[in-house]
Amino acid sequence: MTALTLSTAGAATLRADALVVGVAKGPKGPVVAAGAEAVDKAYDGKLAAVLDAVGASGTEGEITKLPAPAGLKVPVVLAVGLGSVPEKDESFDEEVLRRAAGAAARALHGSKKAAFALPLDDASAVTAVAEGALLGAYAFTAYQGGETKTSKNPEKADKADKNGGPKQPLGEIALLGAKPRDKEHKAAAERATIVATELNIARDLVNTPPNDLTPEAFAAVASATAKENGIKVQVLDEKALIKGGYGGIMGVGKGSDNPPRLVKLSYTHPKAEKTLAFVGKGITYDSGGISLKPAGHNETMKCDMAGAAAVFASVVAAAKLGLQVNVTGWLALAENMPSGTATKPGDVLRMYSGKTVEVLNTDAEGRLVLGDALTRASEENPDAIVDVATLTGAMMVALGNRTFAIMSNDDAFRTSVHEIAEEVGESSWPMPLPAELRKSIDSPTADIANMGERMGGGLVAGIFLKEFVGEGVTWAHLDIAGPAFHEGAPYGYTPKGGTGAAVRTLVRLAERTATGDLG
Predict the structure, then answer these.
(1) pLDDT tens-digit profile of 320-334?
(2) Could you tell me how far CA 248 lies from the centroid of its own chain?
(3) Could you tell me the CA-to-CA distances from 316 to 103, 270, 326 in Å, in that order?
(4) What is the dihedral of CA 129, 131, 136, 142, to 10 degrees?
(5) What is the CA angle 159-161-165, rounded to 5?
(6) 290: which residues sit within 8 A by CB, 6+ positions away?
(7) For this structure, is 191 an active site residue?
């Protein structure tokens, strides 16, 4: 993990590999943002003119590298675009700062240390810049580099980049302008470090090849981490799942040589007055089962456990932050494979709730494992349940690749979750659960079918899940199928591959619940 420090050093005196400054898009050209005054002075007050001369505009995320003048103790000045200059008396949006810091950190992969002199008007800005930089510095290199990376010879290892190995993430980030002795600034930096650390671990899990991250392996990682952080853990293996009547989870997992697991993580606070339950879909690989996915749709299906990864990371973050709220995480883990023992279209499963489900499509498996976990979570009567899942391609059609959907049995709770997501910089959109679609999942054979109308398929999935939420329990469903895994070029603090979608939303929800400020 990249180190983060709050530095009292001046921009002109700090030694580093690079110095990051912000540049905004003004009406007459680039404008140097607050925080970079000493840097501008080193350029004789002409930094904006120099940037203009080399074609920089200040567009969001734009990266421009300049050789540093003699007055600075860094070799490179990196200017990152912040977009349009804010209106008078306004500050840069936190998400703008988060993305800019992330873009700068990504551009500095391979560097040992960088100083960030971006606008830090308050503790919220400290959080945004710190979080963005730490998330942008992420790289998944565990399976790259071969012998060079694992060499016991330090000199050989240091030359990995030059020899074609992966560049390592930026080693250290120094935030200039933040005050290490200011309680709010210090707390902001500590929170950002915890959230970014756990979010990056969620990314690691999503990026891990499915031959290494089986349900059993995921459960082992969760168990070890939970115990290290004072979180109680319970793992139900296949024998316990069969005995307990978890027909949904077993039905999905029985076609694989890697049996399923249901993991319960319990963080409790002695002064907590509220309890949240987070439920995550954890399909460690999704082939579609007997309803095999078509060619071209299998390559990224290691990401189908991103919901469980988000839940795991959020519970650990809540524990590390010491939030005054009880948080229980449920990881519904299975591998969906075709074989002679796999569930077939037309089979009927008896769920943990007692309901029977006719399986019309074995590729609609996420709702089956979630159904069992939602019923089990409901038995403990939490104040609210939030499930997180890469559930439907239909929701990607509706909202694209960067926005997740929010459905709920409580309109006010759905609104609160949406506001929280937007606050922390995660794009989301509230979606309905139309009553008329419920009839489409009626089954002539069982209590309910796992498929319904194709049009509005993402909403039908939400309606199916609602059937397994306990009566009177407030519930929200986050369909993160779009933003959970990014296949394009990196942008801002978002890397290629696993993104850690929904972690920040869940953590902020836990914080708001702990302080009674949920709305």
Answers:
(1) 999 999 999 999 999
(2) 26
(3) 27, 17, 12
(4) 150
(5) 110
(6) 255, 338, 342, 343, 344, 345, 362
(7) no
Are the C-beta atoms of 224 and 265 separated by less than 8 Å?
no
Looking at residue 440, the DSSP 8-state letter turns out to be: G
Q: Is 367 a catalytic residue?
A: yes
Alpha-carbon span 379 to 275, nearest angstrom: 13
Quick one: which of 28, 32, 34 has its CA closest to 43? 32
Q: How many residues does the chain have?
A: 519
Which residue type does 107 have? A
Catalytic: which of 25, 367, 414, 504? Answer: 367
Q: Per residue in 482-491, pLDDT tens?
A: 999 999 999 9
Contacts of 32 (CB under 8 A, 6+ apart): 21, 22, 23, 24, 39, 40, 47, 48, 51
> How much is the average pLDDT of 156-181?
76
Q: Which of 293, 350, 438, 466 is catalytic?
A: 293
Q: Could you tell me if 76 and 17 are in contact, meaning their C-beta atoms sit under 8 angstroms apart?
A: yes
Distance of CA 492 to CAs 105, 308, 419, 484, Å? 9, 24, 21, 15
Q: Rounded to the nearest 5 degrees, what angle is found at the Cα of 158, between the Cα atoms of 157 and 160?
A: 65
pLDDT tens digits for range 250-294: 999 999 999 999 999 999 999 999 999 999 999 999 999 999 999
pTM exceeding 0.85: yes
